[in-house]
Amino acid sequence: MVYSRNIDGETLEFGVSGKLLWNALLMYDRQTHSLWSHITGEAISGKPQGKVLKPLPSTQTTWKEWKKANPTTLLLSKDDGSGRRYERDPYEDYYQNPSKIGLSPRKRSDSRIPPKDKVLGVKIGEEAKAFPLRYLGDFSILNDQLSGIGIVVIYSKEKQTAVVFDRTLNGEVLSFEKEEEAGNLYMRDKETGTLWLALTGEAVKGRLKGKSLRQIPSMVSFWFAWIDYFPDTKAFLGQE
Q1: How far, in Å, CA of 166 to CA of 16, rounded?
Q2: CA 6 to chain centre
């Protein structure tokens, strides 16, 4: 998750508290020493309790895909003085073992999706929805609606990337279908026939060339974590 750290005219600085709430990390801010949920962005203690950080669009992807789309990007250095080996994931066994579900008892149980399945979670307004990666296939373009806003969910298993865009442009709600050319992932809108780069939401050919879709904040999470925080969530369970 990525948030703006500006709230009520003040820029906060955050660190890792070492504490968990419902098996999810809690941050703290160094100005008020309050605790914040990293999943909801809400302050759960201290002076700003009840305040919510503004989520910003972000993409969980491979370095190869990110660099191709953003060739001048800055890269966080691995040389932080700790000597930690970042090429090795200490949680690899946890990810692969379906019997290991969190560090504390689950708050809720929901059998619609296996608890350790990864889902792409989206929340707009008061409405939330989870899209299990297993149901999105190898390359999917899914037109949907959440809180009255038309969205398009895009997932590529090969490129390990899942993103969500607002499919309303200039007051018109577009409908997309997938198109694959020369190893690149594209989508085409049915309304104008414009060709778009699927993972960036940029129009590259046709009437809308040069336009970009607005990316909507989303996160990849285990189902058991998502359902604990968003108990009323909808779930995509295949073709609807």
Answers
A1: 32
A2: 20
- pLDDT tens readout for residues 22-49: 888 899 999 999 999 999 999 999 999 9
For 75, other C-beta atoms within 10 Å of its C-beta total 8
Domain boundaries, the chain: 1-56, 57-78+91-240
Residues in the chain: 240
- The residue type of 120 is L
Instruction: Give the mean pLDDT of 187-193.
Output: 96
User: d(Cα 42, Cα 147) in Å, to the nearest integer?
Assistant: 20
Spell 16-39 as b/e; 16+ CB within 10 A means b. ebeeebbbbebbbbeeeebbbbbb
The token duo for 217 is 């904040």
What's the number of CA atoms in the CB half-sphere (13 Å) around residue 218? 28
Mean pLDDT of 131-145: 93
Half-sphere exposure of 136 (CA within 13 A, CB side): 29
d(CA 52, CA 48): 9
pLDDT of residue 77: 80
Residue 115 to residue 172: CA distance in whole angstroms: 38
